[in-house]
């Protein structure tokens, strides 16, 4: 009998076990002894005729399920090879039983008590054990053939014992005992999480890659000495402007520091003002560190928002294109976030002979030398239970992680992030470089690479900040704004979409004879990108731009005057970074105002009330500040915030979960607040989007094979992401069309529901839309 692991095309089971083992060992590094057992055993249960009939004939029963019996066999082999005085067999059991799902808990399907009889178990567990016994009977019928195959991977004698002894109760008792004594043995408690996720990650990534026949390209990296050349060419002339002189100084000092300090720790920081060239400086610091440490360490460059990834990725991509053709970038450089295209065109796919599902597996597993991605992708892989996110956990090992604007993470998670960074530096041999213009009180022990950063904040004199402590309604704000309008460019940053739409509408009604533009996530991503580029081009025409926080981090816009509705201090300073950014306009002005509706501040809808109170208290001490004072403002804010905001409960609960391997405690961790009453909606705004939807619908209706359908849909879904908005479900159900798999605003609804100027027309919504 021929045993298969997968079909379309048919893959022999023994070949799959061998391939997964080879890949997983390569991924696991020092954990390879344990991963080897997991990989060789993970599909052991597929040797039953029940599974083979399910695979080849489509017949299905609970007897065809393979994860539990495979997990028991993995634990059995683990006890034999690794001994019974550590927790590795329990980790093996969990990794294998969960390899097709999220990691639920270590004791999944285990008895609650160490001493038990079959009759004492609940009905569900009784049935599971009876099912395993039937599966063992079935395996025995094909013993000779299975024995010969498993001999090829060295499991034949363990298989013989497993069939002869039927040690199911014994293995379950030993596993229950390990689970009961978790953390009391030789392995430190806080190391169990790392061990588990490394083994689980290496296994599931290798399993998916081989099952899809994805060819693996070894991650590549251009040496620092070569990659520095395009930077030197771009900035070859001695800078004349003061700002560019400072940028060059900072660049040189940081690179000198990393060379002197790289052996002295694993946590580093770069603190420098907004607009001082941190993108290049941080990137080359990471590249220099990569060179100094030797080996093939990956660089993971993380940013807070998808809206700024394209911009920073584009700069890094240009540096690489001096040496590598576009079609060859993939093993050197990838961009990973939910809107990113896997390949720019079909030629790239041909170059690597990849199907779309294969490409996405390589991207999601971070199989590249340099990854540009979001905080969400990094932190929800380091802290979490999701199968899809944990595929890349093993790829983080040994990496250099470059983190831009770390302080944008909710302050309640700061203690958690500190703990996790210290853990992965120790357990996974990572290096961390944080970059910020608003140095937070987190990772206080990190080595500062710009030793004299204070002097650069003192030398910057681009902006003045003026605080108005008197609250005002939108009508009052409009009146004040129009009365003080000058021949300058203006940016108004609002806290909610409803607020921004109302301000835009009222300014439009004034007929100010100025270019008036709107920017927020109320506009589809495709139009948003185009609008940012358009605004850059017309800044010399003195436009007025009404926006939300979407402009605050990393968006390279430069206005004469910025109005910022009250927000926590770090957001205000980030907003100020869009004012006179390039120091070419004398001195810019940032006005902080407190806007309200019916006496309720808009800031209160989205920000922590204590953070707002601290900000107000600090700002009204003087009411007027120059840029030289911004660093002191932010340091005062963070000091106060850490003392007064209760960060213990939110962080400590999850830290405890990581230490105790209590997956229940960490399963709901997310950097983004869940919005259960929101759904994604495809917005048809032009013929291109209409054709995209028709193509999508045709595939859904006509392609029945799930793998073929997935491969055809993947590139279309990526393009469709440029037309998707997240909207309140009540509005969606009332106004839009519900298709088989999504909600849609049809092109014929556009005139009534969508405007090219402001995006979705939803001013009449009662609930404040917060983006």
TrEMBL record:
<keyword id="KW-0067">ATP-binding</keyword>
<dbReference type="GO" id="GO:0003724">
    <property type="term" value="F:RNA helicase activity"/>
</dbReference>
<keyword id="KW-0540">Nuclease</keyword>
<keyword id="KW-0175">Coiled coil</keyword>
<dbReference type="GO" id="GO:0016787">
    <property type="term" value="F:hydrolase activity"/>
</dbReference>
<keyword id="KW-0347">Helicase</keyword>
<dbReference type="InterPro" id="IPR006474">
    <property type="entry name" value="Helicase_Cas3_CRISPR-ass_core"/>
</dbReference>
<dbReference type="GO" id="GO:0003723">
    <property type="term" value="F:RNA binding"/>
</dbReference>
<dbReference type="Pfam" id="PF01966">
    <property type="entry name" value="HD"/>
</dbReference>
<dbReference type="GO" id="GO:0046872">
    <property type="term" value="F:metal ion binding"/>
</dbReference>
<dbReference type="InterPro" id="IPR054712">
    <property type="entry name" value="Cas3-like_dom"/>
</dbReference>
<keyword id="KW-0051">Antiviral defense</keyword>
<protein>
    <submittedName>
        <fullName>CRISPR-associated helicase, Cas3 family</fullName>
    </submittedName>
</protein>
<dbReference type="InterPro" id="IPR050547">
    <property type="entry name" value="DEAD_box_RNA_helicases"/>
</dbReference>
<keyword id="KW-0378">Hydrolase</keyword>
<dbReference type="InterPro" id="IPR038257">
    <property type="entry name" value="CRISPR-assoc_Cas3_HD_sf"/>
</dbReference>
<feature type="coiled-coil region">
    <location>
        <begin position="118"/>
        <end position="149"/>
    </location>
</feature>
<feature type="domain" description="HD Cas3-type">
    <location>
        <begin position="6"/>
        <end position="209"/>
    </location>
</feature>
<comment type="similarity">
    <text>In the N-terminal section; belongs to the CRISPR-associated nuclease Cas3-HD family.</text>
</comment>
<keyword id="KW-0479">Metal-binding</keyword>
<dbReference type="GO" id="GO:0004518">
    <property type="term" value="F:nuclease activity"/>
</dbReference>
<dbReference type="InterPro" id="IPR006483">
    <property type="entry name" value="CRISPR-assoc_Cas3_HD"/>
</dbReference>
<dbReference type="InterPro" id="IPR006674">
    <property type="entry name" value="HD_domain"/>
</dbReference>
<dbReference type="Pfam" id="PF22590">
    <property type="entry name" value="Cas3-like_C_2"/>
</dbReference>
<dbReference type="GO" id="GO:0005524">
    <property type="term" value="F:ATP binding"/>
</dbReference>
<dbReference type="InterPro" id="IPR006935">
    <property type="entry name" value="Helicase/UvrB_N"/>
</dbReference>
<comment type="similarity">
    <text>In the central section; belongs to the CRISPR-associated helicase Cas3 family.</text>
</comment>
<dbReference type="InterPro" id="IPR027417">
    <property type="entry name" value="P-loop_NTPase"/>
</dbReference>
<dbReference type="Pfam" id="PF04851">
    <property type="entry name" value="ResIII"/>
</dbReference>
<dbReference type="GO" id="GO:0051607">
    <property type="term" value="P:defense response to virus"/>
</dbReference>
<dbReference type="GO" id="GO:0003677">
    <property type="term" value="F:DNA binding"/>
</dbReference>
<keyword id="KW-0547">Nucleotide-binding</keyword>
């Amino acid at each position: 009998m021929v045993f298969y692991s997968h079909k379309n095309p048919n893959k022999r089971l023994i070949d799959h076990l061998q391939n997964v083992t080879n890949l997983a060992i390569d991924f696991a590094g020092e954990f390879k002894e344990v991963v080897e057992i997991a990989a060789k055993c993970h599909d052991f249960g597929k040797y039953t005729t029940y599974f083979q009939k399910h695979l080849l004939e489509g017949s299905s029963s609970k007897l065809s399920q393979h994860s539990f019996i495979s997990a028991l066999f993995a634990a059995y082999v683990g006890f034999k090879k690794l001994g019974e005085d550590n927790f590795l067999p329990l980790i093996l059991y969990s990794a294998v039983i969960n390899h097709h799902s999220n990691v639920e808990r270590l004791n999944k399907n285990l008895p609650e008590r160490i001493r038990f009889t079959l009759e004492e178990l609940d009905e569900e567990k009784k049935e599971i054990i009876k099912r395993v016994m039937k599966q063992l009977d079935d395996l025995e019928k094909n013993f000779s053939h299975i024995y010969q195959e498993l001999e090829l991977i060295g499991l034949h004698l363990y298989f013989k014992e497993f069939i002869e002894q039927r040690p199911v109760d014994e293995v379950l008792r030993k596993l229950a005992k390990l689970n009961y004594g978790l953390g009391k043995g030789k392995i430190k408690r806080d190391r169990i999480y790392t061990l588990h996720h490394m083994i689980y990650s290496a296994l599931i990534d290798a399993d998916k890659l081989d099952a899809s026949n994805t060819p693996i390209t070894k991650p590549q990296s251009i040496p620092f000495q070569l990659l520095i050349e395009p930077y030197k060419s771009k900035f070859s002339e001695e800078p004349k402007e003061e700002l560019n002189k400072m940028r060059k100084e900072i660049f040189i000092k940081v690179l000198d520091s990393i060379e002197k300090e790289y052996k002295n720790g694993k946590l580093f920081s770069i603190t420098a003002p907004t607009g001082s060239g941190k993108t290049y400086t941080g990137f080359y610091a990471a590249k220099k560190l990569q060179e100094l440490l030797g080996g093939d360490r990956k660089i993971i460059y993380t940013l807070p928002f998808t809206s700024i990834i394209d911009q920073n990725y584009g700069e890094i991509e240009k540096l690489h294109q001096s040496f590598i053709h576009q079609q060859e970038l993939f093993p050197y450089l990838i961009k990973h976030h939910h809107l990113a295209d896997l390949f720019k065109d079909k030629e790239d796919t041909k170059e690597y002979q990849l199907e779309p599902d294969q490409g996405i597996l390589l991207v999601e597993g971070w199989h590249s030398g340099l990854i540009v991605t979001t905080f969400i992708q990094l932190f929800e892989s380091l802290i979490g239970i999701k199968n899809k996110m944990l595929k890349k956990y093993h790829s983080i090992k040994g990496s250099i992680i470059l983190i831009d604007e770390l302080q944008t993470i909710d302050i309640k998670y700061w203690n958690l992030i500190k703990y996790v960074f210290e853990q992965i530096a120790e357990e996974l041999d990572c290096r961390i470089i944080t970059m910020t213009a608003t140095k937070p009180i987190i990772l206080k022990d990190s080595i500062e690479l710009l030793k004299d950063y204070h002097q650069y904040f003192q030398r910057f004199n681009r902006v003045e900040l003026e605080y108005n402590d008197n609250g005002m309604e939108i009508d009052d704000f409009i009146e004040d704004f129009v009365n003080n309008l000058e021949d300058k460019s203006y940016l108004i940053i609002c806290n909610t979409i409803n607020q921004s739409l109302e301000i835009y509408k009222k300014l439009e009604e004034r007929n100010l004879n100025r270019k008036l533009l709107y920017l927020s996530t109320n506009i589809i991503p495709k139009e948003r990108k185009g609008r940012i580029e358009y605004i850059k081009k017309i800044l010399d025409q003195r436009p007025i731009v009404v926006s939300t926080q979407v402009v605050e981090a990393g968006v390279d816009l430069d206005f004469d005057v910025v109005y910022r509705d009250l927000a926590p201090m770090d957001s205000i300073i980030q907003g100020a970074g869009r004012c006179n950014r390039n120091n070419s306009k004398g001195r810019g002005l940032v006005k902080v105002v407190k806007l309200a509706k019916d006496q309720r501040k808009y800031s209160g809808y989205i920000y922590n009330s204590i953070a707002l109170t601290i900000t107000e208290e600090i700002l009204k001490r003087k009411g007027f500040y120059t840029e030289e004072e911004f660093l002191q403002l932010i340091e005062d804010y963070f000091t106060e915030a850490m003392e007064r905001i209760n960060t213990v409960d939110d962080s400590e609960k999850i830290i405890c979960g990581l230490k105790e391997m209590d997956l229940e405690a960490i399963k709901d961790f997310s950097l983004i607040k869940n919005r259960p009453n929101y759904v994604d909606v495809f917005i048809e705004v032009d013929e291109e989007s209409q054709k995209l939807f028709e193509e999508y619908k045709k595939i859904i209706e006509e392609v029945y094979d799930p793998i073929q359908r997935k491969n055809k849909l993947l590139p279309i879904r990526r393009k469709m992401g440029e037309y998707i908005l997240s909207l309140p479900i009540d509005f969606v159900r009332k106004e839009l069309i519900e298709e088989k798999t999504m909600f849609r605003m049809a092109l014929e609804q556009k005139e009534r529901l969508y405007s090219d100027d402001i995006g979705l027309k939803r001013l009449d919504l009662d609930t404040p839309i917060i983006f």
